[in-house]
Each structure stands twice: as structure tokens, then as C-alpha cells.
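BUG: 3D viewer hangs when loading the predicted structure for this chain

Environment: internal workstation, default settings.
Expected: structure renders.
Actual: progress bar stalls at 90%.

Input used:
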Amino acid sequence: MGRETTRLVTREGVTFITFRLLDETGIVRDAFSTRKGGVSRGIFDSMNLNFNRGDDEAAVKENFARMGRALGIEPADMVMSQQTHTSNVIRVYDSDRGNGITGPQRYRDVDGLVTDIPGIALVTSHADCVPLFFVDPVRRAIGLSHSGWKGTAARIGAATVEKMRQEFGSRPEDIRAAIGPSICRNCYEVGEDVAQEFRRTFSARECRQILLPGKPGKYMLDLWRANQIILTDSGLIPDHIAVTDICTSCGGDLLWSHRKTKGRRGGMAAFLQLLPADQ
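C-alpha cells produced before the viewer hung:
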């Protein structure tokens, strides 16, 4: 895009990442959490936003409360996905507020969320997989998806764009999207089994951009480029797509990485809230 795509923000003692492209729409709050600013201890130190890693539940709830205060979002207005590396995307309604955070998790096998209701904050969980943010400033609708290698191979980004078209009449050329912090191609070695899944859904030319040579029998997988291809194939304008340059694995101690820690970790979360029209 020819300029810095992200900003590192510290507010209320909490550090998070935002996307300039999304902020400039003026209709959303967007954020990707870091490890800084929470109350968790030990291997979860300190801003762990994942209830399923073995951390103390009260600490995770307090972390969400702190993140909420930093963003100006009430935890009761957050709606969390229930991720199993699918390409399933659902519409979120007012009755879903608090799902998975202040209330029970009522979803199953959901990796993508869309809504057009102001005040609802969509939330997905991450620790190497790609967060995909979508904002339609014309129809005033948003989407947020979790895209690991399985979700990327299954083109969940395209499924999210299509869900926004079906539910809200969104046009791909109006949508602004961000491909968020996640593992980079220099850190993500995969085998032939994963490569074959990408060959099923991407052309040979695209695979040459996505599956880079690695050790014998291995490839270095570029999830950022793969999702960029998916979004442009879905009709998004290239200048309307912001691509991160922040890797969860080689980016120091700011972010959690499942691969780097061999699973001994907490988790980050992506947040996207549609603001009221008069705000």
C-alpha cells in the first residue's frame, strides 16, 4: 500500500494492534491483541484471551474486561467464534451478545462471523492462524474470520465475502479487508500433505506463489499471499486490502505463537465492532 498498514497502540495499560485501512472507514473499532497488559501468570503471562489453554478462567475474564476497557467495548457485547478450522461463517444477531465470553458458547464449528448490528463486537482466537477483517462502509456491515492452513485452503475469506453479499447485499468492490498478524512464510514449514490440499483449490500459478521451496519434501507456506489471492479472486480491489508484516513466530515476545512455543502458550484475539451511525 506504500505506507505503514498497522499501528501499535497502548491504552489503559493494554497494548494492541490496529489497521489504518479499517480505522479510516470511521465506522469500526478494530484490534488484534498482544501478550501485554493482562493478569495471567506462568506460561500465559500476561494477556491470555483463550479459555481453552488451561489458564485460570477468572484471569481470562479479567483479561477480556481489560481489553474491553482499552477498546471501549463491553465484554457483554462481544461474540466469540467456536473454531475448528472450518470454512463455516454465520450471521450474528443481537441475541448472540456475550456468546463464549460472558455467556456460554452456543456455537459449534464456526470460524467466521458477520453482522450489521452496531455495538456487537466480533471476536476470533489466534496464535499463528490468520485473522481476516472485513468492513463494508456502504452497507455498514462487518465480518471477522479465523483462517489457518485448513481454512485458507478451503477459502474461508471467499466464504466470508459471499456471506456478507447474501446477508447484507455487500459488493466486493466496497469491502475493505485486513490480513492480520500471523505466522509468516519464513517460519511456516509444511509437508506434502498440506501442499496437496492447496493444489486442490489453487491454480498451479498461484501455488508457485504460495508454496515456496523448503527442505527436501517440505514447503514454506505463505498464508498472507494465499489470503490476498483469495480476496482479490473474490472481487476485492487490491488497494482495499491491507496485508500485515507482523509474524507471530519471529516477531519477538509481543505475540503468542503455537508453533514457536510447541503449544505451551496463551492466545491472542481479533476484535471488530461496528459503531452506531451517529458515532
